[in-house]
Fold each of these.
Amino acid sequence: MKRITWFMSCLLLMLVALQAKAAVVYVETDDPTFNVYTWSPETFGGWPGSLITDKAELTEVNGKQYYKFSLDGTGRFIIFNKGGVQTQNIPLVDGDNYFTYPIDGDYSKYETTNPPIVITSYTIVGVAELCGQEWAPGLEANDMELQDDGSYQLVREGLTLEAGGYDYKVVGNHAWGLFEVPQSGNQTLTIAEDGKYNVTFTLKLGEENILTAEATEVEPVVIDHTYTVTGEEDLMGESWDLNAVENEMTKIEDGVYTLVKDNLDLNARSYEYKVVRDHSWSWAVPQTGNYSLNIEERGKYKVTFKLTLGETPTLTAVAEKLEEPPVPITSYTIVGDAALTGADWDVNAEANEMTQESQGVYVLLKENVQLTAGNYNYKVVGNHSYDVYQLPLQGNNTLEIAADGKYNVTFKLTLGEEGDNLTASAEKIEEPPVPITSYTIVGDAALTGVDWDVNAEANEMSAQEDGSYKLVKSEVELAPNNYEYKVVGNHSYEAFQLPLQGNQILEIATNGKYNVTFILTLGETPVLTATAELVQEILPDYVLHYGTQGAEWQDKVFIPGEGENEGKLVAADVEFATDTEFGIKYGDTWYAGIPNNDEPRYRIHGDWCTDIPLCTGDDVKNFIINEAGTYTFILTIGEEGNTLTVTGFPITPTVVGDLNADNLVDVSDVNIMVNMILGLSEKTDAADLDHSGDVDVSDVNILVNIILGR
């Protein structure tokens, strides 16, 4: 009555595999072309299991060469295979396993040098009615005890058993595969009539191990079972519910039970069902798989289930139609995998409603669908409901995509008297984009360390948990300026760049060291940002640039002052030889450009200014040095402006061109002033000005600005 099936055997193998630990397999062979398989729950159904294709290098152990495999513990059995000839299932022990394969060229044979396994316990396993639990090798309550005659024995008392057969066997060390009697298959205890029994199991070890079971009836028992029909929700009201009282069958005579389900609203398709006993899957009809009730057209039905017991129990279901189907179908909608349809099996997706092309023909075109190679499932439903209409009735249709790309997919439904037909075809319209595997920041060298280098590994961004990418450049020394940058993909502007046109700008206002963080956020509209955190402000070098016309110019760096000059900057021991070295006839007139913080260089120069961009506007100062000597220049930086003094006297600005419209300047005055600046003789005309009269203020300003390079 209770027989272990192939399905139960496979299930047990899966459970055993789950308990397996790591094992190392060493194979000695003269033919390395053999295949190795492992059996594990992850590959159940794909017998003989997982193929190991990568053989390790030869490993020497005690002077012999072996191929070594390390199994991660998900498999418990191993099979050698060559040319379709394979060994039997070989159990593995935890740790090292050594094999010689094949033996005398026979690929169905192997030898093992593993040390013998010592069996310390013997446990009876079998069906739950006999053993308390279904096939439980770890159940210590079913361990057998050693007897005086050297045999092992287990007594199970007070078992309520009905007439039939009960499968059992013995295992060693609470594990499958180490020791089993029988080695294959099971023993069966046959009970002639219902009753309460004491069952004695006996194991005799020897050249042939013998396992027996003897049942002694304690008292007769009338067993009254409960039979419950389970199945799909539309058919049974509850989905595969073992405990649904409303689905318990009624006994109408010995060995015959019935159940009636009335006023069921059923669609035109097949419905699965089966019957179980005593609210347990351990006894069911059918034992494996399910029965199917086929409904030809939608309507209201009365369904009658009938169970007939006996040596081979049977279950039937008869559907009686009560009324005609409801409203006709007014819409057809394609449902399926999200990548194919844009909405994951959504019966209400308006974008997937089909359009009537002709009488009985409906179509849907999905354009520009990005698909990867693989199979995609789909079907059609009517009136936005599986219950109203679906095609196919069982399972789904499959659209196979051979290669990645962008496709136009056409679905077509044809209705007909001999049956409806649903198809899908895919037209490839575009190759898939090259995937971006890296993002690199490129930009100005001061900001990135290398000038617009798409291959700079130091500037590759790192993927973050939120899907963004990030790069941090630490303690970058930046002067006040605008710095340009962008991001490229796969080290190429062609693969990806952001922004597509132009560059991003990072504005730096203060000279210093910065931690600069770049963030790339992908999405429908990618965004690239950069933020600069000031770590340390760096005061710029202030340099005094001095010399005479025609001579080599010199620089002097300002350093922090001490004593009365504390808080100021000092350029000491600036040596001026003689007045004549300046080449200026009308006194020694020099210009000191005192820039703002955007360009922190300081210059003193003689008679030209056009090459010095700082000699413009309010930054131009005139001062006079009347004699040769060594001077000290003191620079004071202030919020309201910078001041420059020289040893013994201040450098007083002489403002040029600061004239108002009410004042007129004589031409001779203009000539004198210009000649002083240019170092020319006083008789030289400085500009094309006539000497007939006064000069307008605007002419003076223009002339002065030309001279000063403004």
Amino acid sequence: MPDLAAVLNAPAVQAAAAVLGAGGALWLLLTQGRRWPGALALGLASAVALGAAWQRAQPVDPAESLARQPAHVPAVVRGAPTPVTVATTPGLDRTGDHKRPLGPQGDPGAKRAGHDDRRDAAAAGSVTGHGSEGDYIGAEACRSCHQHAWTSWHDSFHRTMTQRPTAATVIGDFDGEPRRAKGRVWRMIAERDGWYAEGPDPAFAGPPSQAPRLKRKVVLLTGKHHQQVYWVASGEARKLTMIPLVWFERERRWVPYNSLFIEPPPKPGQLPKLPPVGLWNMSCIQCHTTAPRQRYGDSHVSDLGIACESCHGPGRQHADTHRSPVARYLRHLGVEARDPMAHPEDMDPKRSSEVCGQCHGMSIVDGTKHDLVQRRGASFRPGDKLGDHTLSGDYSGFTGADGRMIDGAFWRDGGLRVAGREWSAMKRSPCAKAGDMSCVSCHVMHPKRTGAPWRDDQLKPDMRADKACTGCHTALAAKLTTHTHHAADSEGSRCLNCHNPNTAWSLLKATRDHEVTVPDPAAAHRIGKPNACNLCHLDRTESWAVMETQRLWGRGQGGVSVAAAQVAAGVRWLLSGEAGVRALAAWHMGWEPALAASGRGWQVPFLTLALMDPYGAVRGTARASLARYEGWQPAGYDPDAAVGERATAVRAQLLRWKANPAPSAQRARRPAVPLDATGRLEGARVDQLSAQRDDRFVNLRE
């Protein structure tokens, strides 16, 4: 059945109504009102025409005006005021068709000393607003009718996922100090008209030491919650490139890109590769904006950031329907026009979660549709079955052409190992397969009150605690200690620690993968994955965890390796595991529940050894965990310094430990930890474990 609003607003219907309305007025005049029923019908048609004309005469929201324009016409030409066009002219903020400086001081007369505007012009229009098929109208159009929903969205980190640089959005310290990243020196500079990055030309093919230095304006930001990435013109068409320094908000410092993520170190004698030119246009745009069309040199979006239409679908038809006075009057009479907007909380649980899964899941576009998606944008709309639009299956044992990408996101059993793809993990859970669990079971997008702690993860109240599980599993909650075999007030009785442990990784921290599982240490050992029991009991062996699981719950089959039966799991993972496992072990050695279960202090010398790990993310995590031990933060240590500088600080720390080890490190208290009777490192055992380190290629793509 055709939509009522669309029919009423069709030009042909409006023209016909105008003719009929005029005829009705003439009919009344000629018959002197004696044949009023026919005239009344014609008069109603006249009302339709007048209503449509009135609607067209109303002021149009700027975002709506933009979306109505042809997508291929640049906004700078249209002159349409839009909040989504990245500075198409150097030094301009395109919130209108006038000049407004972007810089901290806001001085229109500011000069850019030593800067060539033409270099920034390469990014002109690299991200511009558009109306995808004319359906998207932008978040601002929702505000007048949906004030509360708009306000809660505006308070969320979804909105700030992608922004233009302003004094309110830039969180990094642009102090002009030289900083080294990927073997190259960069300076981040704040000037009156904007924020700049000065560094070697990323397109230069020769030795980095000979590369000409360029000063380019920051035109786009990604992130604000944990980190912030800065994008500048690449000089290659209109593609953007990333500055290899990322602002790490938690520690308020600049971190080289390859040290913030678990990314392989370069081979000896080689410099790390810079982030690829066009990464924003090729990848980031897909989930960090609304209604993207990722044409590599001329990308278009409806909104920067994740906005209303990402979750509810395109809003033009909805807005037109509710703006029409005729449609409103017909609703008053009980005639409802079809509203196309999607509401995840009202959907089937699987369809609801797939709205989140379009971004928070591993979904691969069919290669035959790739070019079409680039030109027109993704075909998925909220309420659709995601599998009809992307390849989004189970990735256990994946060995296809994208095997390395999959391997960088999932364990060998298909379990998730990086954050950001939680839907891919959650849908594997029995609670989701056989029950009604969905993303909105725990998360809420539009709460009555915003702010911390909701803003952090957009969780409903108490969803960080047992209520996330006991709300449904009431029988288990009634006999908690019988089920957990731990004290009721201990971390061992917290549902999530056992059934959803921190085995995924993101932003220099471990996190929960969102798949509800039953602990099985033997199965986890077979695929090289840390198990839930030993992530708390770091001082115990994996064989101990296997036997305890069998003894207490009668579950789990199989054994473990000789090393896993002899050495404390936390130490073995930290010294012998692959890079992702080493990072998880380093983080858990600073996790308070683990310190409560396995004691505090003995971890110091092992974390100190990890300060020399070849992966920057492992070093940075070990340093952060050492801060949990009073007096053991290594003096003068920088995880991103040269090897020699790091080694000096590490040797000094190990000598301090040898002279005065913590009392809790004595072997009698923790026999599986490779420390002698006095708490000093057992050199031979430690060297053997370090020699067994798994140096396979690991690149966890967050």
Amino acid sequence: MKRMRALMLLVAVLTGVALAGLWWQADRARSQLRLQAFEEAGQRSQQLADAMAGQIDGLLSSLDTALLRLRRDWALAADLPAFAAQVQETLDTLPQDFVDYVSVVDAGGHVVYNSLGAESGVYVGDRPHFRAQRAVGDRMLVGTPVRSRLSGRWVFIVSRPLLRDGVFDGTVHLLVSTEHVSRRLAALSLRPTDIVSLVHPSGQLLAHSASHPVAVSMKVPADRPFLLDAQAEAGLFRFESPLDGRWRTAGWRRLPASGLVTVVGLSDEGVMAPLQPLMQRDWALKGVLSGLFLAGGGMIIFLLGRVGRSQDELHALTEDLERRVQARTKDLAMLNAELETFAYSVSHDLRTPLRSIHGFASLLEEEAGPSLDDTGKTHLRRIQAAAKRMGQLITDLLSMSQLSRSTLKVAPVDLSGMAREIVAELVRNDPGRRVTWEIEDGLRAEADPVLVRAVLQNLLGNAWKYTGQTADARISLRRESGASGLQTFSVRDNGAGFDMAYVQQLFQPFRRLHAHDEFEGSGVGLATVRRIVERHGGSVSAEGAVGRGAVFRFSLPQAQTR
């Protein structure tokens, strides 16, 4: 009986855990669905903002065309009545009620013409829009909304300067109806709770698809992303509307010419509305599944037994896999040893005929040299040089193979001291060279000293070699940066450099960017550098320009603080 009670308790506990997991998973799925819905709403709002920006840009283009036409007509008109006729003709080309009226202001800031027949002689030279138009030069300027004293409606000024011989001579204004623009915004197919706004670069609302009379006199909060970064072109943000308190996901787009911003905000309830039936089905499904869990509690014991047997089978499979891995590792070690033996055998077999070629060529030069013409001597020297280069290539290839397979013996390494030793050796081998060395003090890393010496020998040796034809040669070793446990060092020179189009070939074996008669080498050194650095978990890169030097960067683990 105790065993049965314990089993019943176990079943009850497991059933409770399963139910809790079901509800947690369902809530998590609902949260992910909600997050996905808001991400899709953000994408849709961005697309709508882009579309509305295109429409607004088209409206502004038509306004700018009208301004340019009016400016031309003003310069050509014989009198005000003739100009007024041209104004009416221009307004007829624009949408009805789009523009309230047209006015012209002279260079002194006095209104000299108004299409409504009012305000002539009024001084507006001290108004911000007139001063701004004078300052920005010959381009269209969009002002902030104001309530027209003539029509009583909200309008915003769109203007261009009048020019006489290239000099500012006043402005021509179009007073655009914000209500008309708001109707254009509201024409976008959205839900009733969604909004579309047109915002001035200063943050003033120019038009709003909902509550327009109230909204047009407001400024958007200063924390909006398009106000925080005046260079940004588009983006997304979430906000709580000060007009109705609703949360919305908004996409925005800045018009490049005018700086105006179109904002499309999709309300949370509108975004979630299509998901409500799915949410209700989710609740029903959770209820059904909960009942199934409760009814099937007795099956848990059977499933636990199956899980136990499966674990035993998995354990047996794991042990078998470990045995196979050990066997394959042993086979691989034997194969590597055979490859190493083969490499040494091949190198010995290759070196023997090379030494014979070089030796017989030298003997031929001694015995038959005086009787050979210049062409024969040239051929003989080329044979000797090729044999020597082939021998060096075999040596470098074996060295690269050994360094790539050797066991890492990590320890603190003084890169500065090691580099100075290598530099001293280079100078001893060629004392006639004059090179300015800059080795930064205190460069340290956690790496294999033998392998790191090979890296520095190759990089510093290459810099020494490729500055051989540079009059004022300079070579430096510095630390550039450090992050995520790695630090980056650079070897820089002002030598022959290379074409960046071939940078991918630098670290491949036997690939050379310079001819042998120009700079000696086997094309193995940089491949060795790359393998050693990558074995330490770092990376290597190069930059250069032909005739302007090169810089090689490599990263190594940072030295441990002891």
Amino acid sequence: MKKLLSMVVVASLGLNLQAQNDILDIVGHADCKDMLTIETRRTVGPTTAPQNYGEVLEFSGNERESVHFIEEEHHTVWYTFEAKTSADFKFELEPLDPNNDYDFALYQYTDEGFCEAVKNKEILPVRSNFARNNAKIDSRTGLRSSAQEELVAAGINPAYSKPLPVKAGQKYVLLVDNVYKEGKGHILHFDYVKPLLLGGLVQDIDSKEPLAADVFLVNVVTKDTLFQTNSDEDGIFANNFEIPLVQSKAPLLLHVKHPDYPLYRQRLDAIQILSLRKQPLVCELGQEAVTVVGDKRIVPDNRSFELEGKVVDDETNTPIQATVMITNTKTGEVIAETESDAETGEYKINVDVAEDAIKDPLHLEVYKDGYFFQDTIFKAYTIPQEAKKIRIDRRIPKLKKNAKFIAANILFHGGSPKPVNSSVSSIKVLFKLMKRNKKLRIKIDGHTNGCPDGKASSIRLSDARTMTVKDFLIKNGIDPDRIENEGFGCKYILYPVGGYRQHLNRRVEIKILDI
């Protein structure tokens, strides 16, 4: 149980800051023999523009209706990567200019003769999409779960192809071709997901009578609803969903709601769901609200646990002394505070949360003068009673001129400049950062999750989000001359729109102008 609990809390506290990606130079990788090795656990790009087809014309004079070969090679880049895990592989190619028309072909690599075999049409792609660019979706393309076809020909066809099941260690080659001359580059967003089926039975705990109820499955880390369904008159429910492999051990919370019963919740993870294939989940509703962890029914009460970990410099990985503080975001009360050891970076802190505050969001903050902050939000009632020791290591980046940081927990409601409730504490931490560093000047960059109402509207919304943060800082005494702001709309999306991490696109980033 302790092992499960460690995974639950670490996953809940595992949001990391990411710096804005630099421009990736892809010039010189237009031929298969010069393929560029990339990593697929992260976003790649933005890139420079593909210039031409290189020294070798691998494709020419093919039929327009072909699903295996592009009709003519135009402006290409060849990428190669190794599958890092066994799962369904997805990606999205986002053109920097939506007027560009990008096509792709994905191959499984064979051996040293691969490039020659591709040119001679002896190897076929396992996935392709040569469809005409669709301006309504900003000309994006890639592999998406909702797609029906593995290979897509040129013309007015679906912009996405089906995900590809891959195994860890397999090597692949991705050919990307921009039809238009003097085009712009692109960004590649990657995902590994595991498709799962969760089914079960809802019944009364005493009579065992089946119940028709609302059933939700929520990712505790991202707060995303993975599916929403209903049990039928026989109490039976079943639903397909998918979860990213990086979160396969993340806690999931099954909610069962019935108008005549208190709320029922059951804690699960992807590994547990796989074990339920032969035995359906049984959800028994009774007279009190409960959370089920494993085979234990837990009624919320007070929580006491020990938090320990290590704080290191993000760049050098050396231990540093920093302040670790836990605050009740509802009351503003500092529940616990300590400092990590200057030589080892280790810290230990005892946390006691009263019964009437176990559902209040707790704010974990790690900070040090001259460094950007690390923080996150969690709730004590999500930590089952058996938990005694939780370990959370933290990496914090130094403040450097022109460095850019994603304020991971400053997020906003969809279509609104209003921050989500949990973001208020993070905005306050940004204020404390400005207050501690008197010479610090920043620029707040705002972003949106796509441009559903057009780019102009998206830019206005992202600018309004920066003003929300800027106004808070100014009203609390920060000199306006120390703050600049700009809205970028949907220009720099980090994660696919509609994906499980899309809420992280509704963000602000902090650029250090001067220290």
